[in-house]
Amino acid sequence: MGWGCDYFFEATGNAKAAAGIYDCICPGGTVILIGMPDVVGLDVVPGMVKEVTVKNVFRYAHVFPAVLNLMGKGALNVKPLISRSWKFKDSIEAYDFAVT
What we know:
Strand order of the largest sheet: 1-2-3
Number of domains: 1
């Protein structure tokens, strides 16, 4: 209904990305911060105004096998998340692309 998303997963650990976590979450939504590698400053006021729940996950502890299982069953469609792929022989090109 145009209020924003119910769940927002921030997994980049990027300070600019973390600064925008409340922009697209709906009132009463949940933000999940996944494996932040550094200290990330967070303005909590926008989250308080929207009464957002913030949860923290330490990396991907104990969930990797479950995710692979869901993907194997076809219950988790990750194809929309894949924007590009490279052959192994083109790995250097892929890394160069990721840098930019």
